[in-house]
Amino acid sequence: MPDQIDDIRQIDSRTFVIDQEDIDTDQIIPARFLTTTSRDGLGKLAFHDWRYDGEGKPLDTVSLNSLDTAECRVLVAGRNFGCGSSREHAPWALHDFGFRAVISSEFADIFRSNSARNGLLPIVAPEAAHNWLLANPGVSIKVDLASQHVDLGNGPSFDFAIEPFAKHCLMEGTDPLGFLMSHADAIDAYEADHA
Question: Which GO CC annotations does the UniProt entry carry (predicted)?
């Protein structure tokens, strides 16, 4: 059975900003941790080499280590987020850490696809809105997936695009495998009728 994914319909959250461009998947979760096929527990490894010292102790100076993701469920990152090698573990780690959406002005295509199919909403923001978010860390925003709209309050609100099947999976709290498994009876009936 696939690991649990929360459904996403609306997100009312403060933002957490990492104002750095070209954050690659090895920074999100180092390759040495890609030894599991489960999402569970990967959150503690998110941004591992930024968050821990050489002995594996959390660094007090790194704000990610004290972040309350019950309040900050939206990560705002610099341009070209998720570049580098393809790995589903990157969105898995961010999701398990507690983020439900990532906003950037640009994503690596494979990371964006992996995120949308694994419980993490990737939102491409127009340049003006992205710059405003980077300059206003911790601001409260509202994301509405059904209408594909981000309300920035005093900032430049905007609409965003998302592939329809990915949107369906995110809103239903499932992934492509879970979607197929939910239709197992219909698949079995079809195969029986066409044997």
Answer: 3-isopropylmalate dehydratase complex
